[in-house]
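Annex B. Sample input.
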Amino acid sequence: MKRAVYLLTAAAALGAATWRWLGADDAVPDAVRKPTTDTPALQTELPSPLPHEVAAKVKPIPLAQETSNDLRARFRESRDYWDFAEHVFEAAKQGDGAAQYYLGVALNTCEFFYSFYFVEQRPGSRPRIRTLDEAQQLTATPRGSAYTPDDVRDIQDRCQRIMSISPPPFGTSREWMGAARNTGYPVALADAAEYKAVRALSDPPELANGSRSEDRALAVEALQSKDAEVIVHLSSTAAFLAGDLPGESFKRQWTWLMAAYLREPDGHALDEWRKNHCALEAHCHPDDTVKDLLRRGIGNEFDEIERRARELNEKIDAGTFEESDI
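Annex B, continued. Sample output.
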């Protein structure tokens, strides 16, 4: 049981809210980037994620659900994040929460994952860019094993162009994720709830209780969207908020993942979770579907988890979900 809980929480933490990774705020040093004259850096005024006086200047623009889904699909299908950033940049500057969020995720992939695999920093030496072969060899190390050599090639394809320009032409992931959160984009709110839940694990009790209350309030606000991707992102939050109840973290996280699957059995909300779960589960087969992973992971409690997931979806759809439900 403990092994299953570890795999579940680790996979969710790896897949959701990638912008919160500790290395995500550190841009690649200027010495590593090679400025070019092909595409000049864009001059922008970007919203800060924290100061209220700046956030207040971000005027939210209502986004139709189908437009948000189209943008989400464009991000998932993008093979070059420079092209994607150019497509959404103006909308992001105007306060489009979905554009801000997916621009932030794209930039974080480059700021963190590209930097990890392709930027070599040796003590006393200038940083150097690894070759693709060198970067792919890192997948054989414990720290780099969450991704395959093909994944590393994809990271290079998506990020090499953006990472060749200094200063960052589209801003930073922290700026855009903060803007998306301030705009109230549901998935950004869900990510913020998860981040707070993780932080609360190491906070003293007097701070942790307040943080958990904020987590629950963010979750309720995000769930107004009834978005399956929001539910996936809140799955680990639900587990972290379960406290010390025996087995409850396990049940809660699988319940939320099952609820997302029931909402979109043929959708893509769990694609990233599936990939990250398989990176950690030794028995995962390339042909395993999300349903296969759910059934194997839940085991004998499958019927109970499915029942709980349907009840959760009913509350979300009816608008009766409350903070006490997470």
